[in-house]
Structure formats: C-alpha cells, structure tokens
Amino acid sequence: MKSTSLHSVHEQSGAKLIEFGGWHMPVQYGPILDEVRCVRSRAGLFDLGHMGRVHVRGPDALRFVDRLFSNYCAKLSAGTIRYSLLCAEDGFPIDDVLLYREADSVYVVVNASNTAADLDWMRSHTGGLRVEIDDQTERTGMLAVQGPSSREVLQQLVTGFDLASLGYYKFGFASVAGLPTTRISRTGYTGELGYEIYFPSDQGPRLWHEILRVGQASGLTPIGLGARDILRLEAGMPLYGHEIDREHHALEAGLEFGVNFDAAKGDWIGRAALERAKSSPTRRLVGLVSEGPRVPRQGTSVLAAGRPVGAVCSGAPSPTLGTNIASAYVSLGLTAPGTKLELDFRGKTQPAIVREMPFYSRTRKAN
Questions:
Q1: What CA–CA distance (Å, rounded) separates 326 from 320?
Q2: What are the residue ranges spanned by the domains of the chain?
Q3: Is the pLDDT of residue 366 over 60?
Q4: CA separation for the pair 195, 145 (Å, rounded)
Q5: Cβ(109)–Cβ(51) under 8 Å?
Q6: Phi–psi pair at 291, nearest 5 degrees
Q7: Into which CATH architecture does domain 7-49+138-234 fall?
Q8: Assigned CATH for 282-355
Q9: In which element (H, E) is residue 352 found?
Q10: What is the pLDDT of residue 365?
Q11: What integer best gives the mean pLDDT of the chain?
C-alpha cells in the first residue's frame, strides 16, 4: 500500500487511517461531521498527495490531450483549468480529471485509484505524436486549503502573488513558505473557496505544519477523506466509482460541461459513442433528500410506487442541510425536483424527494 510523504504526520496526529485507492490515507482526525462544519465555517487542510499528477509535454502535447480527453484544451488560455473525461471508445469514462493548460504543455490531475490505468491508456494511445508523459505522482505532493478563511490563511505564506487575483478554475506560480515557483490553483472539491498547492514531496511535512501554524488563529484543522466525501456530495461533485464509472457516462451524470463536441476540436476517443448516447437518454443523475433514521448508501434501491427505478450512487448525513442526502440514477420522467420516491433498505422503505444538485453552493465572489 502506498503512502504520501505526510503519513507519519497523520499517525502522530492520531488520525484514523484506511486504504483508499491503494493508498493509506486519513479518513478522519476527529468526528467527521465536525470536520465538515469546520470547512463550511472556517477552513480545513487536506492531504491530496494520493491524487495522480502527470505532466504532458512535447511538440504535440495539446493535440494529444485533445485526442484523448473530452474537453477542448487547445482553445484555453494558459493558466486555465478544465474538468474533463478520459473515455474509452464506448464513451464510458476511464477517469475524470482536471486539465491545467500551460503555454505549451498540459498538467493532468487524476484520481488515485485510476492513476496506473490512466497512464497505461495514455502511453498506449500516443498514435505517433511527439509527447512526453511524465508521471510526477511520487516526486510531488499536493495539499488543499478549503473554506471561507482559506485565502487569509494561505496568503500569509505566499509571497509575490495576490491570491485574490486568482479566478475560479485558474492557476499560477508563486513562492509558498520559501519554496519558489510553486503551482497554486483555485478549484476545490468542497463547494467552498479553496486552493491547492503542488510541491516536491519531501517538503510535505514542513508545509503541512506551516499551514497549521498560520491557520491556528482562524480555526483551521486537518480534514480527512470522510468529511471530504460529504463536502463534495453536498456540492454536487462526482466521485469516480460512484456517480461515473464504466456503466455511467458523463452526459447522464449531468457533466455536459466536461464534454466538447466542437468540430474544431476534431475527433477524440469516445466522441461518436457519446454523441449517440446524447440523442437517446434513458436515465439521469438526481439529488435526493430523505428525512428518516436510515442513511442511503451506494447501491440502495430507489423505488417509485413500489417499483425499482434506480439506485443510489453516494449518500450521507448532511450537517449543512440537517438531513440525509444522496445522488442517484433514476428513470427519465422521475427527475423533476419535488418528485416523491422511496428508498428501499432491505424491505423497509423511507420517503425521498428529488432535489436539484448541488445541495449546497456558496456564491464565488471575487473578494
């Protein structure tokens, strides 16, 4: 099992560690719902070192990326990030990723559990193009600071760069805690204001402690995978293996913004299959809220008038909304907000109501 450069730090912090995507990662440092509340009201610090980081360089880097990924990278300006899918020929995703457009290269952040498969796919589909596929996962680390106070916390360690100038889904480079030319992005998986920083892996423990030090006055605390999963579900963001997988594609998951059919982009792997799927949908991903004692989990059956019409992808108690929430695929015709359905817990049913996702959003302002 792999571990990030912060593994000993997590152990010393008393974190509960679990296997996740082939990595030994902290699921919680304290009560999970308290960690969710911390990020919603103050700020939290996340170790994302398990995420895959791949730099695609070479004369044909942009052509290569636009041949493999569903979004249109070549038309982006440098410093821009886009959500995208890496699809097989049948249109179903191998992974969902973030593409960081640089002047003449692309930095790709992929899911931990899919890194090896993504790299194999990318390396076997170069098609004679002149590209270098550099896996930087082990050489680099990744931390995120998320929450309303994230900017004021991180800015204390950033020199020569005003974080307020960094737009949503943009990135730049600056000195962070004395480390020169550190990649800083503003994306976030929580629905809150937040930033990610990338650095040599051996600098992870020092950066972790520095961020905790400057964030202490703002109430910043470490956050584990358990809270991160609830936060991203509240924010309506997909998790590979739940909302999308080799049986659920991007369009029925409501991820059209990650797919570009522009003729100027040209052909890309999975395009034809997704165009066909677009014309004949049969199901759609929706949000569900459910008052009751039972928390919906992946695989929980969704019923309409006692008839199975879908299944839950992700579910959790939401401390932000004060109720149980879930994402689920249901048959078309049952996707309108307010539609009354039921959840089947091994023969015991609990009412659920369709709700538009995201369940929670915070207006992203410039300040």
A1: 14
A2: 7-49+138-234, 282-355
A3: no
A4: 5
A5: yes
A6: -75, 135
A7: 2-Layer Sandwich (3.30)
A8: 2.40.30.110
A9: strand 348-355
A10: 37
A11: 97
Q: What are the tokens at 125?
A: 């589909």
Instruction: List, in order, residues 6 or more apart from 239 with CB less than 8 Å away.
Output: 229, 232, 314
Q: What is the pLDDT of residues 317-335, one digit of tens each?
A: 999 999 999 999 999 999 9
Query: Would you call the peptide bond into 281 cis, given omega within 30 degrees of 0 as the criterion?
Result: no
Closest C-alpha to 286, from 247, 258, 314:
314
Distance (Å, rounded) from C-alpha 273 to C-alpha 302?
28
Over the stretch 137-187, which tens digit does the pLDDT of each residue have?
A: 999 999 999 999 999 999 999 999 999 999 999 999 999 999 999 999 999
Phi, psi for 213 (deg, rounded to 5): -65, -50
Q: Which residues contact 285 (CB under 8 A, 6 or more apart)?
A: 243, 248, 252, 253, 254, 313, 327, 328, 329, 357
Tokens describing residue 252: 């029925």
Q: Residue 330: name the closest of 347, 305, 358, 365 by CA.
A: 305
* Angle between helical axes of 32-41 and 225-234 (0-180°, round to 10): 60
Helices (H) and strands (E) in the chain, counts: 8, 20
pLDDT (tens digit per residue) in 111-129: 999 999 999 999 999 999 9
Q: Which two tokens stand for residue 287?
A: 């949000």
Summarised one tens digit per residue, pLDDT across range 208-236 is 999 999 999 999 999 999 999 999 999 99
Which tokens in the block code for residue 313?
């992808």
